[in-house]
Design brief:
14 strands, single chain, 12% strand, Rossmann fold, 3 domains, alpha/beta, 20 helices, DNA polymerase, domain 1
Length: 405
């Protein structure tokens, strides 16, 4: 299927009532592509988790009112540059999530290696009202990361976000801003010049269409993209009720590393950071200490799937596998070590893939059966099955049947 045709069906499903990223991802995993899902009848849709009779009835009515190709043409008039998970330049780390953003609008410069996860990106987030201490350490850490070739990602908000973007640009680095508005709407307005500076060499991303104004419900979703795009998140200063803490918690759920700049007990902006430390986040002692810890991060080994789209060997299945064992990791290193220490771990198979491998029998079985056995999300199971096949541990048969060997 041509890329433009694929984009048309990602857009079309977004128009359906009560359909969001999670259900769209399930459709994609179940049918293989969203065009096939669009043409599926009610009985076929009922096989997808979350599609009950009432929702199927609503979808059937809505589908008759939309032409995917016309939707694409209408959308492109206002949003000429956007990515869907089927596109080659869609960020690999975001594609690994159990519910990747169906649409990523962008402006600025695409870096293919960055999108594939080969050039690591680090998120730096924090309060909109930082102290001089917070600003100073944001600049110091950002400069150190830029010298090592890291891309700096943040949300173009006032305070720590803006400080990180500026320090990155001043150091000659590349920065990515993820917005909670349309890519053409600068919020806050005082960051308009910073926005223009980022566009010269960096990238602006948003799930929201052009012209979308600020809305408080958009920013937690924005934080999810910030965390998912990056291999690690650094929190500089954050009060107890802070969007930066949302980003850190989401990063934790995605099995990304979380690092924290420590603060004093009498600084309200340090309370959130101190809580993260209590939950197992890594404490940054200085620039060299941070770089040393980042150097210990598991490598993102790149493999190629059957469609030629690159994916990494470390996926959201790692998060789900660890949570299935009753733990929630503070970092991916912790998650990997806990999973690897399982007494029932099979030798030679990556620890993160073992729960799915154990559910695949010698004789062929369906994807749905494996999902039932593991109690993991369908997308995470499909990703793990692909990697097990590429590693030679299982074989995929026609009809999405799998067996060992």
């Amino acid at each position: 299927m041509a890329p433009a045709e694929m984009q048309a069906y990602w857009l079309a499903w977004l128009q359906m009532p009560r359909i969001g990223p999670t259900l769209i991802h399930r459709l994609h995993q179940h049918f293989g592509d969203l065009k096939t899902a669009w043409l599926a009848n009610g009985k076929e849709l009922a096989q997808v988790e979350g599609f009950g009779p009432k929702l199927i009835e609503q979808v059937n009515r809505a589908r008759s009112q939309h032409n995917p190709q016309q939707l694409l043409l209408d959308y492109q008039r206002i949003n000429p540059r956007f990515l869907t998970p089927g596109d080659g330049h869609y960020p690999t780390l975001l594609r690994e999530l159990h519910a990747p953003p169906p649409i990523l609008n962008y402006c600025g410069q695409i870096d293919a290696a960055e999108m594939r996860g080969e050039k690591p990106a680090i998120a730096i987030v924090g309060t909109r009202h930082p102290s001089e201490y917070g600003r100073r350490w944001t600049r110091r850490l950002t400069r150190a990361l830029v010298r090592r070739g890291y891309t700096i990602v943040s949300g173009l908000a006032e305070g720590i976000d803006a400080e990180a973007h500026r320090a990155c640009l001043e150091g000659g680095g590349r920065t990515v801003a993820v917005l909670g508005t349309g890519v053409d709407v600068v919020y806050p307005a005082r960051n308009r010049q910073l926005y223009r500076d980022i566009l010269k060499s960096g990238l602006i991303l948003s799930e929201y269409g052009a012209g979308t104004p600020p809305d408080r419900t958009h920013f937690p979703q924005r934080n999810r993209v910030v965390a998912g795009f990056c291999r690690a998140t650094i929190v500089v200063e954050a009060p107890k009720r802070s969007g930066a803490l949302i980003t850190a918690n989401v990063a934790n759920e995605f099995c990304r590393d979380v690092y924290v700049v420590p603060g004093t007990l009498d600084n309200p902006n340090a309370r959130g950071c101190l809580e993260l430390i209590g939950q197992g986040a890594e404490v940054i002692l200085d620039e060299n200490h941070l770089l040393a810890m980042l150097g210990d991060m598991p490598s993102l080994d790149v493999v190629t799937d059957r469609g030629g789209v690159k994916v990494t060997a470390r996926t959201a299945i790692e998060t789900q596998a660890v949570e299935h064992q009753g733990t929630v990791p503070a970092s991916s290193k912790t998650a990997s070590s806990k999973t690897a220490s399982s007494k029932t771990a099979a030798p030679a198979i990556p620890a993160a893939l073992q729960p799915v491998w154990k559910a695949v029998p010698v004789e062929a079985c369906s994807l749905d059966r494996i999902v039932q056995q593991t109690q993991l999300p369908t997308g995470a199971v499909s990703s793990a099955l692909l990697q097990l096949e590429l590693l030679g541990f299982i074989t995929e048969l026609p009809g999405k049947q799998y067996q060992r060997g």
